[in-house]
Fold this protein.
Amino acid sequence: MAAIRPKYRADGTINGYHAPVRIAGHPPQTATFERKTDAKRWSAEIEAAIRQGRYFKTSRANQHTVAEAIDRFAVTWKVTFVNGVRLSANTRFPS
């Protein structure tokens, strides 16, 4: 359960509600709402999604392509192809 905190203006009146969601093993998620009920609803939805494995930040997923992953793999493992045959760093070229 998220600890929803009120945000105060300089004159002491409530300006909104801050809803942080912290679950071990996952980065913290935060949002601010005008109404406390919206903050409670959002925090419950996010907590459930994280626990069920349905919550993913889309910006991180859209940063990389499959082609970049393959290139990174080839550089990391020094994989080369000669005449359609995969050769690793320790494999000698065929004569």
Notes: The helical segments are 36-52, 58-61, 66-77. The first strand starts at residue 5 and ends at 8. The first helix runs from residue 36 to 52. The CA atoms of residues 59 and 65 lie 13 Å apart.
